[in-house]
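Query structure, 387 tokens:
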């Protein structure tokens, strides 16, 4: 039959492109219909996400975790920044689900991060050159600290101390991170870096590290307006993604507890309550919200949904306010309704899209590894609270 395509005779590269095209058209068509998918038991959604995140680790050519899966180009190379905090998630899986494989993966990832750490203690992103980046270094610091706590291996502590020493050196005269940042401008979401600099201070006292952490947290508070933040977006003048906003809020919340500083916790609460006002009855949160609290765009940043759910659950733990719990549960259920867990395509089965619909502005047409990471974190916390 002349019209039949003998796919087995096509070059391997052509077959790959054909599969990507089929995956794209199938996924885009489903999102175009905007029909919510069936939500299954929470444990089933969690297990699917865990297996996807492990595939992202396996699909990397080294010991890091692949950036994620793109409908435009397949699995991408390892991403150092997010590999750092994904290690923390694998350690949590080992702790709460007795997953020995997850523990081994976490240690493997952190040993790789030590190998790729710059001589000056920083972490760079090869896509942008060899110079260290404040945010990337802070996220890898998270994994290094946890690896040391889990293994007591001095190599991890030494690498963590080197990272903090670099973060102190590159701070300006006021202690703020105004250079070695994305696009060379300060970002409020570096409060998340301050959180882990503060945490290492509790393990290995470093007064300069504490000073720099507080300087950046204080600056973050100075940028807050009615719960929202100036200079929170990746690009100046843009409305931040909920992903960025949640980074900023979580950094303030966690650092507030580490440093026993109520003003940081109060700032986080103000931010968490501001975002809650935009939570739809179905769990949808607009993907971008500007400093005036005005939504931008008609899509959802699913990563931001997961991150906000974690924040709300932590505040529920601390205050007992049911509104936080209900908001978190609704937010996570929306993400669950967007997760495909029974598709025959292993590249997306269990993964979490950057945006809903998938062509939204945040990591368009992709399944980034950190979306699955925060989804797992959120579901783990939810299940622990329900048990």
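Result returned for the query:
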């Amino acid at each position: 039959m002349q019209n039949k395509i003998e796919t087995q005779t096509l070059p391997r590269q052509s077959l790959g492109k054909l599969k990507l095209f089929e995956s794209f058209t199938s996924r885009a068509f489903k999102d175009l219909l905007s029909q919510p998918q069936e939500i299954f038991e929470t444990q089933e959604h969690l297990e699917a996400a865990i297996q996807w995140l492990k595939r992202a680790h396996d699909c990397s050519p080294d010991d890091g975790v692949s950036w994620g899966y793109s409908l435009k180009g397949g699995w991408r190379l390892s991403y150092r920044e997010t590999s750092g905090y994904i290690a923390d998630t694998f350690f949590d899986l080992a702790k709460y689900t007795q997953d020995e494989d997850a523990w081994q993966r976490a240690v493997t990832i952190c040993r790789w991060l030590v190998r790729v750490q710059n001589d000056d203690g920083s972490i760079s992103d090869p896509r942008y050159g060899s110079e260290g980046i404040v945010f990337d270094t802070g996220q890898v610091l998270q994994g290094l600290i946890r690896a040391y706590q889990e293994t007591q291996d001095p190599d991890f502590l030494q690498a963590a101390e080197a990272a903090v020493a670099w973060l102190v050196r590159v701070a300006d005269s006021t202690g703020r991170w105004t250079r070695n940042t994305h696009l060379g401008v300060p970002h409020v979401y570096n409060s998340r870096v301050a959180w882990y600099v503060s945490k290492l201070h509790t393990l290995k006292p470093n007064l300069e590290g504490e000073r720099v952490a507080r300087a950046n947290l204080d600056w973050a508070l100075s940028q807050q307006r009615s719960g929202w933040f100036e200079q929170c977006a990746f690009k100046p003048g843009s409305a931040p993604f909920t992903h960025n906003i949640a980074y900023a809020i979580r950094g303030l919340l966690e650092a507030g507890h580490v440093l026993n500083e109520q003003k940081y916790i109060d700032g986080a609460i103000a931010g968490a309550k501001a975002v809650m006002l935009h939570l739809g009855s179905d769990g949808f949160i607009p993907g971008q919200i500007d400093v005036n609290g005005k939504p931008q765009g008609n899509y959802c940043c699913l990563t931001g949904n997961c991150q906000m759910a974690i924040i709300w659950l932590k505040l529920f733990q601390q205050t007992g306010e049911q509104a936080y719990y209900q908001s978190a549960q609704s937010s996570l259920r929306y993400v669950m309704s967007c997760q495909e867990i029974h598709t025959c395509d292993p590249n997306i089965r269990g993964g979490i899209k950057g945006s809903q619909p998938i062509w939204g502005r945040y990591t368009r047409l992709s399944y980034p590894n950190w979306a699955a990471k925060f989804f797992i974190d959120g579901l783990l916390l939810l299940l622990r609270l329900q048990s």
